[in-house]
Amino acid sequence: MSIQIFILGALTEGEHSPYDVKKKIVEVLNNKIEKASEGSLYYQFDVLCKKGYIEKKEVVHSDNRPNKTLYGITAAGRDKLIEDIYAEFQNFTSVPALYTSLLFSDVVDKQKLSYLVEECIQKLKKRSNDSVISNAHLIPENKKKSIELISNHILDYLEKDIHWMENLLLYLREQED
Hints:
The chain is mainly alpha-helical.
């Protein structure tokens, strides 16, 4: 979904061709969006166009280059973008999965997004609590140190993610005003 969010978000900022959006993905996210190959990007443009979320605006002709089709977002596309951003936070799995949605969070209600971020923080805290080994007496002696190291690593990452989400929450609350 993040590639569609990126396309729709980019089109809220103006008309673009698939090639222009690909350049933005490389510039902004260092091409870290899953399935952001040129072929899949053009496919996603076709999908979004068929669903009425974007539309062809203009074909730019050039003598020494192939024609370039510029696309714009529709009202339905703006609604879809907002819906998808909320869904990314509601279905939170990891912090990196939120990066694309965060880039275009200026189009959503900050108060609602703050509420969703609070829910994400609670999920992370629950994961952190669930990660604590409560049945240490059941672990074979020769595995205890390995499991302790694994558990500590998991907890360290969860603490960093919680801290990041809390900073995001502060940022969003500042934007609410």
